[in-house]
């Protein structure tokens, strides 16, 4: 009797109304948190929180309880019964969307096929392989992080006879790699201008890839630098020095200006060739050529170093997760670049006979068929480079059902197949500086047919009940 009384009170209209008010306050707060601190903060604080799932479960049970308490299945109460039932159906659809469905992006180069998507959710991925036995362990955890929340996790990985622990150490969101100048810094940087008049800042003990050639900048001038092919740089006594281990030649900018004015290609006699494996002066405002790549040394910048700073524009930077990997004998801290909706930058290292690869960001998720991009079309406004429309000619190839369908997708025209929906999201243009054809389509992919249809059914029933 006491239990029945307790349940009757707990699921009464009064307490159900309190639960509904709490739900409305929660989603209002989630909207505010998302606009201020980002989607991940809203998911951690509210949408993915256990208490919020418990609140929705309570509301569902309260609806069921009131259906039985007031015997709403009777003919004279059919409208009220339909209204309550519609809410239960909508909650069921939302649960399927939350726990079963997924979404992501599919990037397809023109003339190629793809059978996987990049997940919209961020994952922490660890791939470990023992060198001696070849045993491998691949694990991934969906990991939402935010500077607004108190983050933290500890994961264990079994690799052979070892148990490796992976721990959270820090997180930064919306960061961009920027050059910061401060008189208290002892470090310095070099500004190198590469193809497309792009300025690159090479800081001490770092490397810059120019084409396939690495440029190294060392804080200390070694007598014999590492003989790995590349260009070694060092600054001392007000001058910058270069030690090339690959062919390097230069043309002073004043000579280049004369050549441009004449309209003729520069004669070979105008170039200065640098001796290999020998230190020589690296002159500012000279055009350097190495393996068909052009580099202009613009200036030396004292008291400067690169730092991760908050991006001025929201959602324009990348996220950085710092973790510590420990096997009981040794440990290593690793900073992972990536984040929600970002292609992660893998970090590889070896420790005590195991090779590890760590990633944080979108991961590949296979789908049971492939999509081929036969052709991508981009139209622009007359006299402008601004796109007016873009569309993709696609072919769905499903060997399971011996299906081959030609489809066309563009804005407001969606492709539906086997529970997947494909939207024209964006595109990638070809880089004329590379031999590959990089032009392609970017599709937004959603796999939530069941959850969406059940939710729509709930809305339809609600409209009929009202």
Overview of this protein structure:
The protein is α+β, with helices and mostly antiparallel strands and 466 residues long. 20% of the residues are buried. 24% of the residues lie in helices and 45% in strands. The strands form 5 sheets. An 8-stranded antiparallel β-sheet has the order 25-24-23-2-1-28-27-26, with no helix packed on it. A 6-stranded antiparallel β-sheet has the order 8-7-17-16-13-14. The protein has helices at residues 2-10, 13-37, 39-47, 50-69, 78-99, 253-262, 449-465; strands at residues 102-109, 113-119, 123-130, 136-142, 154-159, 162-181, 188-194, 198-203, 206-210, 213-218, 231-236, 239-244, 249-252, 272-273, 280-281, 286-290, 293-302, 304-310, 318-326, 331-338, 347-351, 354-361, 364-380, 387-398, 403-410, 415-417, 420-428, 440-447. It has 7 helices and 28 strands.
Task: Indicate the topology.
Blueprint: H1 2-10, H2 13-37, H3 39-47, H4 50-69, H5 78-99, E1 102-109, E2 113-119, E3 123-130, E4 136-142, E5 154-159, E6 162-181, E7 188-194, E8 198-203, E9 206-210, E10 213-218, E11 231-236, E12 239-244, E13 249-252, H6 253-262, E14 272-273, E15 280-281, E16 286-290, E17 293-302, E18 304-310, E19 318-326, E20 331-338, E21 347-351, E22 354-361, E23 364-380, E24 387-398, E25 403-410, E26 415-417, E27 420-428, E28 440-447, H7 449-465
Main traits of this protein?
alpha+beta; eight-stranded antiparallel sheet; single chain; 466 residues; 7 helices; six-stranded antiparallel sheet
